[in-house]
Inverse folding.
């Protein structure tokens, strides 16, 4: 079988959307053409934005307007023949679905790239608009390039779109990426690069935040995970199952492990290394590291990569 | 420690706590994941004998995402389509396709948009197989990467399972 190439040669469409008429400003595109309170969408030409998303969407577009690429993109979509809907999500799973011609956008989901640089949630919106524009104007090419695999970008359509993304990201003064990777994080708004809990980069603050959230969970009737140091018995009593997920060293005596649940979410299980894990510090950067309910770990170590989406490379 | 990983995961703490979390009623009561190894699917006869049903999860390759879909999110991804297979003939066909695809160990991973889960008579998971929609890359339930020697397995999936939701008209 032929090896999957690192990149796809000769990818077409990297120049982005067609130019808007000379003199077009972003502000020209942000006045609703239809705004009926009974309609769940506010319409901007042929772009329909979910009503609850409108303010963040306008804020994002205004910011993106620093780049002509964003003006060209929105002008093209607003003047398309087919309506594009933009729906609000809260889970960071930004995407464009050509089956229903919808962009699903989390206005608070910023991203950190493999090199540590960051991109705003607004940047993610424009990324998805790039796919929507390509599907609108070059449907056959979109469908073809989505199936042309490469290792760096997953497929030729992502390579095309990220090449364009790099162009507008530089114009916006944001980070750029050389692949399809990146780790989403919650920012303070669509144009912010600051994490919601900026101080969480301080281990003590991270511990405090986790403890605070535990209290909030209890108040809302959830069965919160036990406090660090509660001991293996308390962890068994909580859910009694091994946990599998990436580990973060909070400090020399505490680790946090992200455990995905079966509903698209998850939480951190925090361990006191001495009391919960028998003094054994688990390694980091192993996305599927298993820690069982008795504090045993190391069942399986797997190399991380872009597909895993957690941890550095 | 890896600074990037720390920053990224720390920034997500509030989001994951604020989202759906396991409640007392939904918390799994016991471990029931007996994840398979590559050897299990290279010679799948033993698995086949224990399999009473299969769940096939699919996400359309045409859906464009900002970052790749992580394997652990595939089953619950918003656009996933789930097919439950209990027909013995179809289960046999899936295993035949798997056998013919001849998976071999690989160091490379990829984004996976297919996941096939084998269930025993009690509904317990006995195998998980991830597969790319556009390459031959795959991964077993224990995280071992492999490559199929041909496209037989994914061709079968694509021919028999839709990747977009079927919308039933009320009319």
């Amino acid at each position: 079988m032929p090896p999957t190439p690192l990149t796809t040669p000769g990818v077409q469409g990297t120049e982005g959307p067609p130019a808007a008429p000379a003199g077009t400003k972003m502000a020209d595109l942000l006045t609703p053409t239809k705004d009926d309170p009974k309609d769940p969408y506010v319409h901007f030409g042929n772009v329909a934005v979910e009503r609850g998303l409108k303010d963040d969407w306008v804020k994002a577009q205004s910011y993106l307007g620093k780049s002509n690429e964003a003006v060209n993109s929105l002008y093209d979509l607003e003047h398309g023949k087919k309506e594009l809907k933009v729906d609000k999500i809260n889970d960071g799973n930004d995407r464009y679905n050509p089956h229903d011609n919808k962009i699903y956008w989390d206005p608070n989901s910023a991203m950190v790239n493999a090199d540590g640089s960051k991109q705003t949630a607004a940047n993610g919106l424009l990324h998805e608009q790039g796919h929507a524009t390509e599907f609108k104007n070059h449907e056959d090419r979109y469908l073809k390039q989505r199936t042309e695999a490469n290792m760096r970008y997953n497929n030729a359509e992502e390579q095309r779109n990220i090449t364009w993304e790099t162009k507008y990201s530089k114009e916006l003064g944001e980070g750029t990426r050389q692949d399809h990777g990146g780790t989403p994080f919650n920012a303070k708004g669509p144009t912010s690069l600051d994490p919601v809990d900026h101080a969480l980069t301080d281990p003590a603050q991270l511990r405090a935040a986790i403890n605070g959230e535990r209290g909030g969970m209890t108040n809302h009737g959830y069965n919160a995970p036990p406090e660090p140091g509660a001991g293996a018995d308390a962890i068994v009593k909580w859910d009694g199952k091994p946990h599998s997920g990436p580990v973060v060293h909070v400090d020399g005596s505490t680790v946090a492990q992200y455990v995905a649940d079966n509903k698209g979410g998850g939480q951190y299980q925090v361990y006191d290394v001495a009391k919960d894990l028998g003094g054994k510090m688990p390694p980091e950067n192993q996305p599927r590291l298993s820690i069982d309910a008795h504090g045993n770990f190391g069942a399986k170590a797997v190399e991380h990569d872009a597909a895993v989406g957690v941890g550095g490379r | 420690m890896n600074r990037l990983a720390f920053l990224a995961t720390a920034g997500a703490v509030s989001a994951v706590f604020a989202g759906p979390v396991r409640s007392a009623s939904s918390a799994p009561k016991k471990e029931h994941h007996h994840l398979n190894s590559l050897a299990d699917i290279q010679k799948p006869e033993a698995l086949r004998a224990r399999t009473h049903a299969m769940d096939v999860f699919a996400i359309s390759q045409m859906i464009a995402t900002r970052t790749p879909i992580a394997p652990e999110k595939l089953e619950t991804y918003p656009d996933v389509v789930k097919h439950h297979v209990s027909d013995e003939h179809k289960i046999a066909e899936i295993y035949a396709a798997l056998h013919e695809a001849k998976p071999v160990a690989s160091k490379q991973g990829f984004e996976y948009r297919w996941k096939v889960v084998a269930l025993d008579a009690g509904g317990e998971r006995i195998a998980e197989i991830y597969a790319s929609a556009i390459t031959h890359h795959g991964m077993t339930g224990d995280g071992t990467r492999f490559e199929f020697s041909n496209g037989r397995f994914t061709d079968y999936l694509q021919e028999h399972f839709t990747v977009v939701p079927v919308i039933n008209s009320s009319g």
